[in-house]
Amino acid sequence: QKEVEQDPGPLSVPEGAIVSLNCTYSNSAFQYFMWYRQYSRKGPELLMYTYSSGNKEDGRFTAQVDKSSKYISLFIRDSQPSDSATYLCAMTRSGAGSYQLTFGKGTKLSVIP
Amino acid sequence: DAGVTQSPTHLIKTRGQQVTLRCSPKSGHDTVSWYQQALGQGPQFIFQYYEEEERQRGNFPDRFSGHQFPNYSSELNVNALLLGDSALYLCASSYGQGGEKLFFGSGTQLSVL
Fold first, then answer.
1. Closest to A89 in 3D by CA, of A67, A68, A65
2. What does the H/E/C string look like for chain B?
3. By the CB < 8 Å criterion, does B22 face chain A?
4. Helices (H) and strands (E) in chain A, counts
5. What is the average per-residue pLDDT within A46-75?
6. What is residue B100's predicted lDDT score, i.e. its pLDDT?
7. Which of A64, B76, B90, B109 is the most exposed place for a label (fewest CB within 10 A)?
């Protein structure tokens, strides 16, 4: 079993839809959870960063972490064509193990005008 | 303010050759991490450099080596290239030893023929 599982999609939604992206993980030591957006031929861009369980909102984006279920989500409200990209979840431990991020495979999202 | 810059953007090599990739971190950052991203996969951690020393290493063979210079820039060297080394190589910078908030460059696309 991989440490981080993410459905690669592709996921296609109409403009204005609410998008839900998810990852599950197996390592209970993970404490920091991130979502990155990666456009084609570009490096990943940090979208959301959360510590431990709970919700975090930033504009149209909401990140949720449920450590008891080892499940994290990213919601995108009022999706736009410019949101079309690959979304990567990533996570790491605290302390000495926090030097490296473990990524999911990424979910490719297309928002259709 | 320049972000993370990587060079070259594209590179074609043949099996058995050696390659050097370069990275300049974001202004104010002192830590550089290297990741390998195969097609359709999430980035995988290679190693991290802090204070000119390798702090942690992922599951990569000794053919992969690196260096960090006093100005915080970094090089990734790969010897005895294999076809399977073909990937996007991403450099990420951060401040301090924690790996949570990484800023990525656009990467170097390496093709091994």
1. A65
2. CCCCEEECCEEEECCCCCEEEEEECCCCCCEEEEEEECCCCCCEEEEEEECCEEEEECCCCCCEEEEECCCCCEEEEECCCCHHHCEEEEEEEECCCCCCCCEECCCEEEEEC
3. no
4. 0, 11
5. 93
6. 65
7. B109
B60 touching chain A per CB within 8 A = no
Distances (CA, A) of A58 to A48, A64, B67, B97: 8, 12, 37, 26
What confidence tens digit (pLDDT) does each residue in A73-93 have? 999 999 999 999 999 999 988
- Shortest Cα–Cα distance, A100 to chain B (Å): 6
Amino acid at B107: G
Residue among A45, A88, A100 minimizing CB distance to B48: A100
Mean pLDDT of the residues in chain A: 92
Q: What is the pLDDT of residues B26-75, one digit of tens each?
A: 999 999 999 999 999 999 999 999 989 998 899 999 999 999 999 999 99
